């Protein structure tokens, strides 16, 4: 057999036909015919050969198609309306009267006789034999059913079911709930028994996979199937199969999405717009956002991009390279499914072999490497990241560390927090430190550790969407060895700065004299010796100002015998002297005005007293600062940490606990839970002595009960904590336990021991998803 005949036999399939589109018809046709797997012969082919073509609109309003020489009658998923009598229908499963919604008529619902068979849902003019069939909806695996819902019943008085087919959508109504459920179950059961439907594109991709080692056959497949190649015309249906009336988009209806099939066609139109616009970033970002929201569309967009980068008339123009730029962004954001990934890799290798040392070759190489590293993103790439990806470059990321310092690192879309932590340690010479470090999202009032596996590109994107000014910080995380840190090292400076952050936040229990001494030492370390000509930092950067606010409030509340509202209430007699009406309203308005004036006066006194207290404390701090003349920066930091170390919980991380209860009956509210290198302790807020302390050797297990409840089992005691910092507490405890095991594995003898039975347990009591808690921010388990 001649080579051309062999190629023709291998690449062509029966049934690849694009239905002609008549724009005058009321109901829109699909751009290609779907076919079931069971229609194929054992060797994967049908008796005759038909080639699939890309639909193009001809002058007379119909689509032109490239077909083979042998005509083949197409099997239509939705049959034509006919006059077949009811008695001729075989294998009837369910039948009965239902109301169908009729559009374009003053009668909203009409009553028809519906019959469900193994292949279709038909409706007739009546139940008698010989009744005229008015319509048919052929059931395939892509059909879907929406079950009856209570909201529709409340609005209409009917229970409704909706059946979506390829061209038709039947909205059916009945007065009886059981009848609606019975029909929905029966139709869904038929749909579930149908073989999966494949599109012509899928079948051609399988042909290419089977013949990928035969370049001549592959080239012949591309040449004779324009549906695989670049087109300037529109796409009328998705390249991959999606359920009709799919409900997966309903969760994002607030964003204006239609059905998945509709969105797939819209995305292809967006792709074509890339060739025309001057600034492609907004379109690229929009396509990526749609793929993030509607997961099934990711493979569809990959398939469309492979199509538009195959056999392009002008492959080296800037307009055509836009497709490659979007494909680059997709490859760094979403990983395609297994079958699409194989097809994409084949396409990239084919382009590299056809166009070596070209821009397309460079993009294909970059995409291939990206696919090896890509994880599913949580955020759509930012504007800056997309511009970097379009040029195949890395982004510059600024990482701050305690004090005014910062480092700039180049990162890719795949760089994780753990990688940045490791590079920062190398840059700052901290590789040999026994303590561990992490990245934090931080602003002036709040901070949170970043998960070790989090992508830095996602973190930076999320920071740009927040209102306050946020930054990425590199800090000490697990303080395992605070005593052996060299005074001259940058790690000692980190310890000093983070200790001062705790002081300013009020998380270092100390008397006011010690706090003023710490503030003076802070000034000496920052400014040197006292000078009248040097501007002094504000008090809230040196001293826990909330302590002054609390003291002023207590003094003012003691002066007030009772709240203003009670004073106003006592001034009025209990019996009503005047009838209700205009005069009563005037009296009430006068009382409310008086209460408001008292509140304004109280606020004014509060601000005045607070200003006096702040001035007094600042004066005391400045006097102490004058007495530190001659102290070097190193001496000031050492003296500062010496005072801080007097607290027995020095080095622990404090978390607010809203509620605490023990199996022994202990109960308390508003506590601090301190997680340290050797134990977990409970403190009353502002007090230096621990209420209870549990060394890790005594902890049998710790677990999550629900999204806000944390449980620790220590010996025969169970402790329950209610806190919003649940994830951070679990992560930090995991990091400490991991560090302990690492020390034991290296033969080091830690200052404490843990039992081999210590477990981390998780019990999910609520259906809402919770974050992964076993993931460490910076320390690999």
Automatic annotation (TrEMBL):
Pfam families assigned to the protein according to its UniProt record, in alphabetical order: FERM_M, IRS, MyTH4, RA_2
The UniProt record lists the keyword Transmembrane: no
PROSITE patterns for the chain: FERM_3 (PS50057), MYTH4 (PS51016), PH_DOMAIN (PS50003)
FERM domain mapped to chain residues: 395-747
Chain segments carrying region Disordered: 31-73
Primary location group: cytoplasm
Annotated PH domain residues: 91-192
UniProtKB keywords: ATP-binding, Cytoplasm, Motor protein, Nucleotide-binding
Bias type Polar residues, positions: 51-71
SMART domains attached to this UniProt entry: B41, MyTH4, PH
UniProt GO cellular component terms: cytoplasm; cytoskeleton
CDD domains named among the record's database cross-references: FERM_B-lobe
GO molecular function: actin binding; ATP binding
Family: Belongs to the TRAFAC class myosin-kinesin ATPase superfamily. Myosin family.
Protein's recorded name: Pleckstrin homology domain containing, family H (With MyTH4 domain) member 3
Species per Swiss-Prot/TrEMBL record: Nothobranchius korthausae
């Amino acid at each position: 057999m001649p080579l051309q005949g062999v190629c023709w036999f291998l690449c062509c399939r029966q049934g690849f036909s694009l239905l002609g589109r008549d724009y005058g018809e009321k109901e829109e046709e699909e751009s290609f015919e779907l076919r079931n797997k069971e229609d194929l012969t054992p060797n994967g082919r049908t008796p005759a050969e038909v080639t699939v073509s890309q639909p193009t609109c001809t002058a007379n309003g119909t689509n032109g198609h490239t077909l083979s020489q042998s005509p083949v009658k197409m099997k239509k998923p939705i049959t034509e309306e006919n006059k077949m009598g009811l008695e001729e229908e075989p294998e009837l499963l369910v039948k009965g009267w239902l109301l169908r919604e009729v559009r374009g008529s003053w009668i909203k619902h009409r009553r028809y006789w519906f019959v469900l068979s193994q292949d279709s849902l038909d409706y007739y003019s009546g139940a008698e034999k010989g009744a005229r069939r008015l319509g048919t909806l052929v059931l395939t695996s892509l059909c879907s059913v929406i079950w009856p819902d209570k909201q529709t019943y409340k609005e209409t008085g009917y229970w409704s079911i909706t059946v979506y087919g390829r061209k038709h959508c039947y909205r059916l109504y009945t007065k009886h709930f059981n009848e609606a459920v019975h029909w929905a179950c029966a139709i869904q059961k038929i749909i579930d028994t149908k073989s999966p439907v494949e599109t012509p594109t899928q079948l051609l991709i399988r042909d290419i996979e089977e013949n990928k080692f035969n370049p001549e056959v592959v080239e012949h497949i591309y040449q004779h199937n324009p549906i695989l190649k670049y087109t300037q015309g529109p796409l009328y249906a998705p390249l991959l199969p999606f359920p009709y009336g799919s409900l997966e988009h309903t969760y994002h209806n607030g964003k204006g999405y239609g059905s998945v099939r509709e969105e797939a066609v819209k995305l292809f139109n967006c792709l074509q717009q890339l060739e025309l616009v001057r600034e492609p970033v907004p379109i690229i970002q929009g396509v990526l956002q749609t793929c993030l929201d509607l997961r099934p569309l990711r493979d569809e967009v990959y398939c469309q991009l492979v199509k538009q980068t195959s056999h392009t008339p002008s492959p080296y123009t800037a307009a055509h390279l836009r497709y490659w730029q979007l494909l680059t962004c997709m490859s760094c954001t979403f990983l395609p499914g297994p079958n699409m990934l194989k097809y994409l890799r084949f396409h990239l290798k084919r382009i590299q072999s056809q166009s070596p040392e070209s821009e397309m070759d460079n993009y294909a190489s970059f995409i291939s490497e990206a696919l090896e590293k890509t994880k599913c993103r949580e955020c759509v790439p930012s504007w800056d990241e997309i511009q970097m990806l379009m040029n195949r470059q890395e982004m510059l990321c600024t990482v701050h560390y305690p004090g005014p310092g910062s480092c700039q690192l180049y990162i890719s879309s795949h760089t994780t927090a753990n990688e940045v932590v490791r590079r920062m340690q190398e840059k700052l010479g901290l590789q040999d430190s026994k303590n561990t470090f992490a990245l934090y999202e931080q602003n002036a009032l709040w901070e949170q550790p970043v998960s070790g596996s989090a992508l830095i590109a996602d973190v930076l994107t999320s920071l740009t969407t927040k209102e306050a000014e946020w930054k990425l910080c590199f800090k000490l995380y697990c303080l395992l060895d605070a005593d052996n840190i060299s005074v001259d090292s940058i790690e000692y400076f980190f310890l000093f700065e983070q200790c001062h952050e705790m002081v300013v936040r009020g998380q270092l229990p100390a008397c006011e004299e010690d706090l003023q001494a710490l503030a003076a030492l802070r000034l000496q370390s920052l400014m040197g010796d006292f000078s009248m000509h040097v501007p002094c930092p504000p008090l809230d950067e040196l001293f826990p100002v909330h302590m002054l606010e609390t003291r002023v409030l207590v003094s003012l509340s003691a002066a007030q015998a009772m709240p203003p509202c009670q004073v106003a209430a006592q001034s009025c007699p209990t019996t009503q002297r005047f009838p209700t009406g205009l005069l009563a309203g005037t009296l009430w308005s006068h009382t409310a005005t008086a209460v408001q004036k008292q509140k304004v006066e109280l606020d004014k006194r509060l601000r005045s007293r607070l200003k006096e207290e702040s001035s007094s404390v600042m004066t005391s701090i400045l006097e102490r600062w004058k007495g530190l003349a001659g102290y070097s920066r190193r001496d000031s930091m050492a003296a500062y940490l010496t005072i801080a170390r007097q607290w027995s919980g020095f080095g622990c991380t404090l978390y607010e606990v809203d509620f605490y209860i023990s199996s022994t009956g202990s109960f308390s509210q508003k506590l601090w839970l301190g997680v340290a290198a050797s134990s977990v302790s409970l403190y009353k807020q502002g007090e230096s002595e621990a209420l209870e302390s549990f060394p890790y050797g005594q902890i049998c297990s710790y677990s999550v009960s629900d999204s806000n409840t944390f449980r620790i089992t220590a010996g025969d005691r169970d402790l329950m904590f209610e806190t919003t910092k649940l994830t951070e507490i679990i992560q930090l405890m995991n990091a400490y336990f991991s560090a302990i095991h690492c020390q034991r594995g290296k033969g080091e003898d830690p200052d404490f021991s843990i039992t081999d039975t210590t477990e981390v347990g998780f019990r999910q009591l609520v259906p809402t998803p919770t974050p992964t808690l076993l993931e460490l921010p910076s320390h690999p388990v």
